[in-house]
Each structure stands twice: as structure tokens, then as C-alpha cells.
Amino acid sequence: MTLRISTLGSFQQVLLGIRGNQGLLIRAQEQVASGRRILRPSDDPTGTARSLSLTRQLADTGRFKEAITAGLTSTNTATSGLEDASGLLAEARALVLQSMNGTLQQEDRESLAAEFDLIRAQLLEIGNVRAGDRYLFGGTKSGAPPWQEVRVGDETRVVYRGNEEQQFLRIGPGVDLPVNLPGIDIFGLSSHSGARFSNLTGLAGGTTANEGQGHADVILRHDATLAPGGLPGIALVNGGAGDTLLGDNELVIDAAAGTIRLGAGPQISIPGPPEDLSDIVVENESGGTLHLDLSGYAGGSFTGTFTGQGSASLDGSTFVALDFTQTDLELRDDARGIVLHVDTTGVERAGKELVTFGGTGNVFDLLAGLAGDLRNEEGLDSHELLGRLDDRLEEIGKNQQGVLLGLGVLGSRSQRLISAEDRVQSVELQLETLLSNERDADFAEVALDLARADLTLQTAQASGARLIQTSLLNFLR
Amino acid sequence: MTSIGYNTGLRALLSSQFALNTVGHNISNANTLGYSRQQIHFGTSSPLASRGVLIGTGVNALDVQRGVDQLLNRRIFSQVSVSGSLQTQLGGMTEIEALFGEPEGNSVGSMLDDFFTSISELSTAPEDAILRTGAVQSAVALTSQFNLLDTGLENVVQDRRAELSTKVSEVNDFATKIAQLNVRIGESLANGLSPNDLYDERDRALRGLAGIVDFKTVQGPNDAIGVLVAGNTLVSSAHANRMTVTTDNTGKTALQVVGASGFVPVTGGAIGGLLEVSRSLGPDLRGQIDQLARNLILESNRVHSVGVPAGGPFTSLTAQNSIKDRDQDGSLRDELLSNSGLPFDISNGVLSVNVTNMESGDVVRSEIAISKTHTTVQDLLDSVNAIDNLSADIDGFGRLRLISNAGHGFDFSSRIDPSPDAEGTFGGGRATLGSGASAPFALADGDTLSLTVDPSGAAVPLTVTFATADFDEISEATADEIAAVINGDSAAQAAGIVANVVGEQVYLQSISSGATQSFRLDGGTAVATMGLGFAVGTTTTGQDNTVDVEIQGLYTGAGDEVFTFRPNMDGTIGTTPGLAIDVFDASGERISTLEVGVGYQPGSELEIGEGLRVSFGLGEISATNNDAFELEVVDDPDTTDVLVALGLNSLFVGSDAETIGVREDIVADPSLLSSSKTGSSGDSSLLLDLLDVDSKGIGSLGGATIGQFYGNIVGDTGFEVASTNSALQSNDILISSLDLRRDQVAGVNVDEELVDLLQYEQSFAAAAQFITVVNQLNDELLSLI
């Protein structure tokens, strides 16, 4: 029996063929129009799962890239800030050297002080530099300026309100890179030395360690002068009230040479009349002064010991009497948390001894101190001033070291970030290629599919039309 | 003879007419689906015997038969059922597939990426308010996408349920129709008629039914057909039973046939497909999405709950999840915490609570032990209330509420107590004497310690006596028990002597600080046991300089740890040559030695290791007096998940895709998003931990990451759609080939019918011609008359 084909069946077959081919054509067209091989998960379930996983990985690398960019931005900002700071410190160093020139007049010093003020303000700006909303040099306390000015007693000081913690950036899978430099490491004095004394009064560190922040002044007060017996017609002026000598000082009057000398201080000639001899000042080697009334001096050599009695204070209110044998005298300023142990055996004059605590001061206070020294509000003599400037110069050197160290750290971080960026970019490219292979249509292939589907559809339509047209009816007349 | 001729001719004419009619019927129904071609069968009519000759009397139309293969029909019905099921499944799955919005639309996947990307962005600048708002908003977008997906899936399931009732009523219509046709066919057969068109109509009804539900047929008497759906009689000859939609005992949709007990487990036809989608595919997928959301909530909240918001520690915090009165006794407090209706499990472990004095910055860490099998809600409340400056209560909604006293804040972070030597047992200002031995101490009832307080001044004698009643087991006295006895002694209180505990050692201390404070250990029977023999007769004095211990950094080690710091000799910080501080871990291993002798500037920092740094202030420390302090560091402050279960400081609320959301107060005030473990504005350590949620394998997701698990769900759905689609296509091809085979028997070919038409037309003409001839013969005869 030959195959019977029902008319309805053959029509439906034609329809089925056309529909199927139209489906293929539409699918190829979708791929061409969207440029995607997978338009819905069912187009290629395993391909979809793979492309989703690649998308996740791409998002990851995108995050790493953003973090690296953010890191580079803040590193660059910090670097340029520190480069400026380094320049400013070099300038400050030059200015200190300039101001140590003994021929400067007070007005020259005033103008130099103004320059130090300016440098300090500029450095403070760098110390509080921001990238976006974050202060770069504040550790993780980056929401407020890390260096803040506070009034301590009658002076303005800058204190560090940040912390020493690290901010981390995730720049790779499980790779966290610290991104910030705590300002205290750069602008603070990072040496771990003990307290240093300015060597003005002869006060030195005691045997016990000290505790304190930044700078402190030890006030050595002259309380009274004790004169030796058998003075050849000379007397203290005002009972010694204006003297600054402390401790035992030998006074030698050489009648033959007509000179007078205190301790190892300079010899001065005793002036003769008609000079006013009622207030002759002699200085010891540290600049401690003794006022003598020589109006009654009748001549004759003399050697005797004058003793300057004094007391020391750290907070300006509690004074401890000095006996110049104390090798570990404790001075305290509980309000500021300072405990200082001093050796008083070398003390020779009254005055303010500047004490610098290692590891805790900062460059801003240093510059403010410099300006203050140059304005000479404390009334220092040139000897004291030079001593102080010399100290400050050394500290500026340390600060320069700190800044250079910071620049080095930033430089190596910047290099790590750049190499990480390279790596992330190559990974990203790789992932994008893989994703494209998985998800994107191969245009050559799709175009071929499209042409093929088009051709088959046309063939199906043509043959269908032929099939539909052939009927016995056409031939029955 | 003549009459025979007429009759023969008439029969031929009528037969041809019948045949033509049948051809016409076939042609007319050429396009009727399910129509079976009818064929007329002829037979010769009974011959007449005339004069010994049997004369043929022509033709008779015997019957009209339809070409049909019942076996093939049954195959077709069952394949139609399969296709019907696949078709509806495909419809549902395609809808679900579109709901995911993958690979490139707005989807949970892309929102997950967005969320973690915005967290990463925030981690690069945690102080940035705009990035912070962005992170919270992307969390909100992620949770709404979860909600949307869940609602979409729920709608798909609900739509299938609604469609199910429509389909079931169609089943009932078909069943009624089949029963009616059974009756009519029976009647026709009784009348000796062959009801071909009724058979066709019944087959069409059966095929229609097959598209909706799969069934088996049974042949009944009088050609009636019974229909059985999964063993339940839907149609029995003349009677149709109603099918109804109901729910089974698991709350899922199920079908029942009236009069039958039990449910009808339909698997084929549209109903089978609808049940598959609404009973398993949809709910399974929802279950997986729920699992994804649940693990996202759990893992994110585990990280977030131990963080500190940008604004610093909390002053009050309300749990998100309510405790339920499971035993229905009207009280919440007696419920076991692990069985109090909280959405997440609680395990045995320890919860660390830090209470910070906001003014001084001092942190007091307390630990709350949680037992899965023992800790009740009341136990938790008691433990919290036992912590100084912190109180807990349950609000009207059954939510735990924590409040700190004024000037204090609390958090659950792993941050370090910056000043761990609060009691001053390490070079503090108080006169301090530590026991040389560690607990347990083998004391006996009546053992004593005798002291003289301020021996060079007021010289107050003091004796503390230890009694059996003070201890659980006096021969194994703990340091805490001994301290409690000393601190409870009124004479000691009056004399200003207290006891503190570091590790397992007891420290006797003056209550005040300063060089004027002193006491002398005179002796007593407990001296030897406690390892205090070295100090008998010596006077211990306080000092004006206190060794301020400050810790900085974040602990990066693995596992909780207790570090103990002990000096190697007696000396003054920064002064005594060779003075060092040894750091021991909990196992007694020395992990570090810190040089604090001459050359060390008091107050400057030293590295301990594991991310920690320490500085010591100026003062004297004594190895002889056993000076020591402990630094507790925690790796995971909440090993119990109690914070997650209660929803304390959570980021996400809810427990599945339907309920997931972002905590409302965080949405309102993004600064509440915890970004750090320390509260510092630039500390993004917690955000980095949160990023780990994206990249770590999660056990309850089969070790997959959140992203991988999601990718698998999408891939599986795609696979389901693709495989259903290809199954449907191959089944449709099978049906069309079966239809083709059926058509070979039962189909109408118009050309064929045209040939038949010509054939019968010519027969008709011939028969007419025959009658004409017979008539002429008659006329011839009549003309003879």
C-alpha cells in the first residue's frame, strides 16, 4: 500500500516547516541585532553559568581597579604634599642658618620670624591636606583635621588628634595595602631619644628617664646671692636681687692686673673713677651675672666664693629649692603630664631651660618656637639664642628625615599600586575576552546562520506553495 | 423481470448517491481535526431465483465505516498528555527565566555586584558621606530585587494555581461530554446504526482531555469508554465524576475526584505541568532563592553586627527579631534562647561586649557565655545587666533592647582595650603585691593572711581568714574566690586594701595611689600556699609615677588570645639597664620581649606583633612583686551568632528572599552603617571583612560563594527551560509522526475523494442509463399493447 497523505496533513506539514524555519531565522536575527549569543539562560545554560561567574569576577577586578585608582590618587596627593613639605623644611633650614648670623638686627630677626610663621602655616596646611573628605595624615581618624591648634597656657601649640592606625585598600583577592601615613610619623619627631636640654643654664638630664610631650621650659629662678666674708669694700647690689648666677662661683679680683673675674667667665678690667662703680656686672662662663657695687673698693686682691641660691619649676608655680648636688631631681607638671629628672650639679645661671622630649614633638611647634626665639619674647641674650637655634636646627634635620622617609614609603606604595594596576588590567582583559567568547555572538557564524535560515525558509515556502497548488481539481473540467 | 431491472437500477442509483454523499462528507470534513475518513462498503443484494436461474439484483450499500486505528489513537492521547505537561511547564519556566533578568538585565546578580562594588568604593574612603549613602542605597536595591524576584516567583505559582481551576473545569466539561457521547453511541448501536461521527467526536473529546490530563481508557459495554485518571474513575460509561482543586496536608495544591478518597497524582497534560510548576519547580526555586538570601543575611550580619558605626559606640540598640512565647505560658523570659522563634540558629560560644567610657575612652570587655541547650532569655538579660553601665530589657514586641548609662557606649567589636592595666597591677600608682603561685591554691579552713597597712605611720594590722564556706572547694581555691574573700573583709575595706586578679594570680593592692601608700605582709598560714613567702616582712609601697600602658592597633591573629606582660626584673622604665617586658601568650609561650630599659623613651610605641603596639609610661615595675597585666584580644567577638539571631546591629533584616530588607534606621541614617572595628572614621576594616562575604565559600551553600550559588540557580533554570523545550519539540515531532500514521488510515485526501467522486458519478450515470434502458424495454413492451 502506498503512503496515503491526507490533504490536511500535508498543509500542516508545510506550515510546520515554515514555522520551524521562521523560528531559526528570528533566532539568528536576534543574535545579529543584539550581538549576543546568549539572550536568555536557556540559550546555553552552562554558558550562562560560566558567563555569570565571569561577570562576578569582572566586577571583582573592577573593584580592585577602583581601589587602586583611589589609592593612587591619595598617594599622589600625599606625595606632592610631602614634596612641598620637604622644600619648606629646606627653606626653614636655610633661614635658621641665616638667623644664626650674629650681625642680624632685631628687625631682621622679626622679619625672619614672620617667614617661619608662614612656613609653619603652609606646613600645617600640608599636614591637614585632604583627598576628598579624608584627611590623609590622620591615621584612621581621618574625619577631622589631624593637626589642631590648642592653647596650652599662654602659647598656641599644635597637637596630633589623629591616630597611628593604617587604612587599608583591597587591591587584589585577599591583598590589603596600607594607604595612609599617620602624620605623627612624618611631622612628629620620630627619634626615640630621651629629653634634650638646651644647655643654657647647665641643667642636665638626671639618671631616671623622663616623660613628656614636645617642649617644656624649666624655670630656674635666682632667689638670693650669698657673699663670702672679708670683702675688700665691695658689696652686692640690691642684696643680689638682680643676679642670675646660681651655685658656687669663685670671684677673683686681681689687684695687680686690675681685673675681676667670676668663675671661668671673662676677665673684666675694673674701671677707675670717674666711672660709676656702683653696679659692675660680672658674668660666669655660662652667662650667670653678679652685680657688684665697687664704689667702696679700695684695691687689693681677693678670692672668694659667691653662691647663687635658686629654685627650679616646671609648671611655673611649684618651685623646688636647688642645692646643686641633686643628680636626679624630679620636677613635675601634672597638668601637662610631664615628669622630668634633672641633674643640677652643673647649673650656673638662672633662666628658662628649653627641654625637648624625643619622639613626641612636632615640626609645627618647632617652627613656632623658632619664630618665638627670633622675636625674643623671653628676652634671651645672644648666647642663649644661638644655643637654642642650634638645637632647633638639629630638630629640623630630623624632621627632614621623617618627611624623606614618608616620601620613600609613598614611592614604594605607588609602585606597588601601579604594578597591581597592570596586573588587574591584564586579568580584566583576559576575563573580558573569556566573557565575550562565552556570551557574544560570532558575527561571521551568525551571519552564516542567518543566510542559511533565510534560504531554508524560502525553499520551504516555495516547495509548500507548489504542494498547495497541485490538486486534481486543476485538471478536472 | 422488469421490476427486478427497476429495482436493480434503483439500488445502483441509491448506492451511488450514498457513496457520493460519503465522498461529499469526506470532502467537507477534509479540514475537520480528528475526523476519520468514512468509506462506504457495497455488497451485492440477494439474488432472485427465477426459473432456476439466480438473477443478481444489484448492489446494496452495506455500511459506512470510518478508517481508524484505536491503538494509534491511544498512543497519540498519551503523547498529547506529555506535550500538554511540557508545554505548561515550559510556559512557567520561561516566565521564571525572564524574572531573573539574566544575563544582562536588572537582576539579583547585577545588584549583588553593585552592592559589593559600592561597599568596596566606600572602603576606599569610609568618611565619604555620598559613597556611604550609595552603599546603603545599593543594599536597598539588592534587597528589593530579592523581594521582586520572590514576588515574581510567588506570582508564577499563584497564576498556575488560578489556571489549574480553569483547566479542571475543562476536564469536567470534557468528562461530561464523553459520558454524553457514550450514551448517544449506545443508543445508535441499539438502533443498529454505526455512529461514526459520534465516535470521532468522542475521540476529539478524549484528545482534548489528553492535553489537559493524562488518563487510561477502558472499553465498556455498547462501545462506551471509561476514563481513569491515575486510577480514579473520571468517566464510567454514562456517568462523569467531578474533579476538584483542593490542598493536601502539606498545604500544596492537589486534585481530588468527587467520590474517590485520596488525591489524584496527575503528572501529564496541562494540569500535570501546572502541578509540577506550582508544587515543585516554583517552590524549589523559591527555596533556593530563600537560601541565597538567608545566607547573605547571615554572613553579612555576622560581619556587620560586630562593627562600630561611624558615630562611635551605641548608646541604645533594639533587636530586629522578636522572641516568641513558644511554650505559650505568657512569659517570654523562660524560653530557651535557641528555641525562642528567632530566625537563625544559636551555637555554644561566647559573646564579647565592650562598654566604653566615652569621656576617658576606657573600654571594659565582658564576655557572655551562651549555651544552646541552657541559656534562656532571662539568662541573657541577667548576663547583660551584670555588666556595669549596660542594661537590657524586652520591649512590647518581644525584642531585646540594650541601653548604656549616660556617658557610656557599647559595641560588640574586636577592638582592643587601649588601657588594659586598669587596676594598676603593672607598675601602677597603688602599692601592689602579686602572689607568686597561681590558682588553684590548696588552702585549708582557717588559713590567714596578715598585713600591716601603713607600717611606718598609722600601722593598722589586718588579718584575713579564709573559711571553707567561702569556697566551692577550699583545697582548690580559685584566684577570684580568694579576691572575693579579701574584698568582702570589712577590716580590709576599712584599711584600704583590695584584691584583684590577673590570670590565676591574686594581687593585694592599696585602694589609693601614690608614694604614701604602703603595706607590709606580716605572714599567715596562707602565705606559703599563695607563693607570698618572699614578701613576708617587706613593705610594699605605691608610687607617684604610674606606668601608663597604652595599646594600639587591631588584632590580626587567628583565634582569641590572652597576652600576659611581665617585667624581667625590678626597675624603672627607660632608666634601668636591661629592663625588659616579656609577653606570653595563653599557653605560656613567650612571644616577644620588649626592651624598656635605658634608651627607651617612656611613652613611645613598641611592636608586640599580630598588629598590636604598646607604649609604657614612666614608672617603676617590679618582677619581685609579680607585676603583670593581661591583654585580651578576640578574633571573633561573637562565636554564637546570637547577635545575628536577635538582629542586633544587623545590616539586613528578615530571613529569606521575601522578608529581606535593609535595617530601617540605617536607610534613614547611613552613618549607622558600621564600617570599622574601632569607630574611627577612616577605619574600613569591617568593610573589607564585608567584602569577604562575596568571595568566601559558604558551607550551607555547598561550599559555593553567594555569586556562584546564584549563577547555578540561573544556570539550572536555563537548563530546565532548554531541556523542557527540547523534550517538547521531540515529543511534538513524535505526535506529528503519529498523526501522519493516523492520517494514512483516517485522513482525507481530496484528490482521492475527487477520484471517488468521478467514479461514483460515473456509476450513478451508468445506473441511470440502466434504468433508461429498462424503461425503454418497458416502453417497447407497452407499445406492443
**How big is the Rg of chain A?**
44 Å
Structural class of chain B: alpha+beta
Helix content of chain A: 40-55%
Q: How many DSSP-defined strands of chain A? A: 20
β-strand percent of chain B reads 15-25%
Largest interface: A-B, 76 and 91 residues
CATH architecture of the largest domain in chain A: Up-down Bundle
Largest sheet of chain B: 4 strands, antiparallel
- Low-confidence runs of chain A: none
Q: Mean of residue pLDDT of chain A?
A: 85
Number of helices of chain A: 7
> What is the alpha-carbon Rg of chain B in Å?
47 Å
The rounded distance between the terminal residues' Cα atoms of chain A is 29 Å
Domains of chain A (count): 2
* Tally of separate helices of chain B: 14
Describe this structure in words.
The complex is a heterodimer of chains A (477) and B (785). Chain A folds into 2 domains: 54-193 and 389-426, f41 fragment of flagellin, N-terminal domain (Up-down Bundle); 197-353, no CATH class. In chain A, 44% of the residues lie in helices and 20% in strands. Chain A has 7 helices and 20 strands. The model of chain A has no long low-confidence stretch (mean pLDDT 85). Chain B is rod-shaped, with a radius of gyration of 47 Å. The relative contact order of chain B is 0.13. Chain B is an alpha+beta fold. The longest helix of chain B has 62 residues, at 129-190. Helices cover 40% and strands 22% of the residues of chain B. Chain B starts with a helix and ends with a helix. At the A-B interface, helix 1, helix 2, strand 2 and strand 5 of A face helix 2, helix 3, helix 12, helix 13 and helix 14 of B.
